[in-house]
Amino acid sequence: MIDPHAPAQPGTPPPWAGPARLPVRPETARFLVLACVFLCAACGLVYELELVALASYLIGDSVTQASVVLSVMVFAMGVGSLAAKRLRPRAAAGFGAIEAVLALVGGCSAMALYAVFAWTGDWGGLWASGPRCLLVAFSLAIGLLIGAEVPLLMELIQRIRRQDPGGAVADLFAADYVGALVGGLAFPFLLLPQLGQLTGALLTGAVNVTAGGALVLGLFHGDLTRRARWSLLTVIAAVLALLATAAALVGDFERAARHAVYGKDVRVALQTGVQEVVITGGTHGRPLNLFLDGRLRVSGRDERRYHEALVHPAMNGPHARVLVLGGGDGLAAREVLRYPGVHRVDIVELDAAVVRLARHDPALSRLNGNVYGDPRVHVRTADAFRRLRDAARAAYDVVIADLPDPGITASTRLYSQEFYGLVRRVLAPDGRLVVQAGPVSLRPRVFWTVETTVRAAGLGTSPYCVDGRASGFAAGPDRSSGATHAPHDWGFVLAAPGARPPLRLAARGPRPATLTQRGLEADGRAAEGMRIEGVRVSTLVHPRY
């Protein structure tokens, strides 16, 4: 009897590397192996993108999350390739087992991460032991399993027909890279919008285990003992059953997790092409809360204080033409329309679904005063940066930047020197810009980076901060402190071309309910008391947030 582990004579292949007993012609067998490589590569890249996307949604700062996931995965793939050398004598059985484990781990990774986030909540303080550690663990496990695929597939393709190693590697990696391309395109354009993150990951796992199982049990069954065949078949069937059960329960799971995150008062929950939108309350005397990607964007308890502080200082002066960047909820426009002499309000909102809710959701439209029924209000669904590039010079008297906080990677360019240069171009010579720049006390360096960047664009600045309540409007750059945690203050930068604009309420304008002239002056002094010197300007090529 030949020992498969016995060392081979120099220059001769080991006994276990001989020709495989195939049920089809070698040419057909090679095509099937390469097709399996293609599918497995597509699935592997979907797992990677799934982890990056979910971590970015739940944690924020997509650059950091992508760097962590991809670097850990690539490292693990190298370790997995080395570890797979021990499985070469049993390449077929090893590959089948690896695909089953990979399908289970990768397919369930999104659901597991979302469950830990929903029922523990705190991603920020648990880097070493918690959800962030779980993200690294999944990246490591998936990378190890993906890395182990290539040596085993190389062994299988050589067993079909011995050929020049360089040619075999070229064929294998060509199929692998093309599969990665298809997986990379399928995730954002098909799986995510059509199935969502959880179902998309589970379906990917099912495709993964089916492809691997079909290759081993259909093409290389002759390399397996009867017991090994039945064992592998049982494992594959169990993995498919688990993935199918999880897919059937996704709806119930999402509702339970959503209630764990937002409470049981969820009225609206939808995943748009831009973000997750959730509305809670707004009926039976309960305050309305609007969450965008898990960040509390509007709180009915004290949104008026925030929006009055944002809008009214900027309306001291000419205000016939007003541009609101962001603010699709209509609340900033509500405050603008309180002023006589406003002829036109242009709202530029990236997510059309937010505008539809602001128009048609009874509670939200009541809160914004049905501003979208006013003929002076015009909405454009567009990116704020691109819209400013297309706008005419000196087109607006007031620009209100009610955008996601600086520090969220997706909004970094909306707080760049180039962005404020475009704002200056569309402002009238006596116009004003106001920017919500995040809480000063929680992230002072970020706030003063915004102020420094606005000044670098040639605008004079008057920073101020307004106290917030502990139950109020939360606009953090991540979900690290819980969905309903609020900052202690809201920071704003009022700016104008050239000279520093005065912090003053309009003499003949409406009286804000929560803001006085004396209070506004105190807000300016409070912000100056927290000034940080020496911060650098943020640009598109050198983001500082």
UniProtKB/TrEMBL annotation:
The main place the protein resides is: membrane
Does Transmembrane helix count among this protein's keywords? yes
Q: Which Gene3D superfamilies match?
A: Vaccinia Virus protein VP39
GO MF, one term, reads: spermidine synthase activity
Residue ranges spanning the membrane: these are 31-59, 65-84, 91-114, 134-157, 169-192, 198-220, 232-251
InterPro entries in alphabetical order = PABS, PABS_CS, SAM-dependent_MTases_sf, Spermi_synthase
Instruction: Describe the function of this protein.
Output: Catalyzes the irreversible transfer of a propylamine group from the amino donor S-adenosylmethioninamine (decarboxy-AdoMet) to putrescine (1,4-diaminobutane) to yield spermidine.
Family label: Belongs to the spermidine/spermine synthase family.
Q: How does it assemble?
A: Homodimer or homotetramer.
Write down what this protein is called: Polyamine aminopropyltransferase
Which species does this protein come from? Streptomyces luteolifulvus
Gene assigned in the entry: speE
